[in-house]
């Protein structure tokens, strides 16, 4: 089984690449998050990371890292396809855990409050 190159997945990329990733994440995040909710044990942190990634005050490199991880999360076909029950989101969780751990200090209380409100609306 091929190993995931976390450094490659989390590479922030240039402004154009970051823009493409942001567009993809904005379009697909909530649909994917709803499907993954019971498979991702840290959904509150994931949604806070989403808001952090979209916050223009977040440093470019941090936004790029988060958008790369979130883009991987929303891709319908990835290393382990998401439709595989019990295993589909394991690679996504690994990538997201690495990204969130790397940038945790940039997730502000406002991002967490927005996440909490959004998750309350989804329930």
From TrEMBL:
It is found in: Endomembrane system. Pfam families: DUF1232. It comes from the Bacteria. InterPro entries: DUF1232, UCP031804. Its main location: membrane. It is a multi-pass membrane protein. Residues 63-97 form the DUF1232 domain. Keywords: Membrane, Transmembrane, Transmembrane helix. GO terms for cellular component: endomembrane system. This is Uncharacterized membrane protein YkvA, DUF1232 family. It comes from Mesorhizobium australicum.
């Amino acid at each position: 089984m091929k190993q995931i190159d976390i450094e490659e997945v989390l590479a922030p990329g240039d402004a154009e690449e970051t823009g493409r990733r942001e567009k993809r994440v904005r379009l697909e995040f909530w649909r994917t998050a709803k499907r993954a909710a019971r498979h991702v044990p840290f959904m509150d942190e994931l949604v806070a990371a989403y808001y952090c990634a979209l916050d223009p005050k977040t440093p470019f490199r941090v936004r790029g890292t988060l958008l790369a991880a979130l883009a991987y999360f929303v891709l319908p076909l990835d290393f382990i396809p998401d439709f595989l029950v019990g295993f589909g989101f394991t690679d996504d969780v690994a990538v997201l855990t690495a990204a969130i751990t790397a940038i945790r200090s940039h997730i502000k209380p406002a991002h967490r409050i927005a996440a909490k409100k959004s998750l309350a609306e989804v329930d």
